[in-house]
Amino acid sequence: MSDALVLVINSGSSSLKFALMDAQTGDAVISGAGECFGRDDARMSWKVDGEKTEKTLSAGSNHHQEAMDIIVGLIESNQLSDKLQAVGHRVVHGGETFSQATLIDDAVLAQIDALKALAPLHNPAHVVGIKAARKAFPSLPQVAVFDTAFHQTMPEKAYHYAISRQLYNDYGIRRYGFHGTSHYYVSREAAKWLNQAPEQTNVITVHLGNGASLCAVKDGQSVDTSMGFTPLAGLMMGTRCGDIDPSILEFLSKKGLSTDEIHHELLDKAGLLGVSELTNDCRGLVEAAEQGHKGAQLALEMFAYRVAKYIASYMVPLSRLDAIVFTGGIGENSLPVREMILKELAIFGYQADADANAAARFGAAGQITTQASPLALVIPTNEELVIAQQAMAMA
Ligand code: ADP
């Protein structure tokens, strides 16, 4: 183990995930998660050297602070305090204010808080986590790593919506893009795989998890991405609708649905779940489709078709494409979905290699196309490692 440990924290409104990471090797020395914060059944679990411990949190207490106290205790009892160099926080929204990882002081914390206008569920929860961590580790540098930051290089023609400038000026309505840390990481790993400098690498990164997005990466920089003002836009996802005709909102409103009900329809009841009427879990859908479930078949077909259409459209800004890069739970593991996507791209000559496709899963990286085909790779993402490294660079 090196002397470069970073505590990576992802604080949600009712949860907190953490990992004490070696920023050089990427190994997590201790990792864990708390859930159901704010409720009587709040609890926390963690792993040290593969051994799992679970604890119920006190009813009525500040669970974020209690979780942080447990983390401090774990670091001390494992005699790791001297090695801990920094705390890295995942922050969903950095708006136009943050285009890179940033050392947190009072002013930065106030700016992250102010961005709750754009991310009302996420940023306030991050602020709670950051405050608890600053209290627990007052002498350590605390660094915010933003999901939106990588996409701040998009040109105006990619990030503006075709709506009045007034709405952009007054409310900041534009495409921000998310999953930036993942797109950044896998594009860098792809450059290594290609033996090219990142600044000379053009790839389309395809992050397919419960949330899903693509990014066109030109010369190592994001030039377009499929999520937008919020993570609801772009691809069809586990439970999210992705791109739809905005007039549907007005139509549903006139049918008597409230704004909250419409949002719930599009965010939680749509996507793979809504179309299949079965599940948002890709594995379950593949199994059901094989057994002839029509809803599951249609959901997977739509999913793959839409990913392929986005990939084709991102050839426009790239002019030269070195590789398509699949990542995320589905991208890293689902052979049939990857194969379906490549089939939809047959016009460009893409062809999956059955053996190579079968080999690249469960954390294994590699090429999944035949030698005659343009290149598609699988690269497992590692957002925690990026957060640890970027925090370490500021320590
Ligand atoms: P999140 O966006 O919540 O981080 P993940 O990246 O963990 O999501 O991806 C979750 C998705 O990955 C689910 O649809 C799940 O079915 C799928 N997935 C995970 N493992 C496999 C697997 N072995 N085969 C196929 N799909 C998988």
TrEMBL record:
Q: Which cofactor does it need?
A: Mg(2+); Mn(2+)
An example molecular function term from Gene Ontology annotations? kinase activity
| Compartment(s) where it occurs, according to its Swiss-Prot or TrEMBL record | Cytoplasm
Where does the entry annotate site (Transition state stabilizer)?
179, 240
**InterPro entries in UniProt:** Ac/propionate_kinase (IPR004372), Aliphatic_acid_kin_short-chain (IPR000890), Aliphatic_acid_kinase_CS (IPR023865), ATPase_NBD (IPR043129)
* Co-factor binding comment: Mg(2+). Can also accept Mn(2+).
- NCBIfam families per record: ackA
What is the role of this chain? Catalyzes the formation of acetyl phosphate from acetate and ATP. Can also catalyze the reverse reaction.
The name on file for this protein is Acetate kinase
- Natural source organism: Salinivibrio siamensis
Gene name of the record: ackA
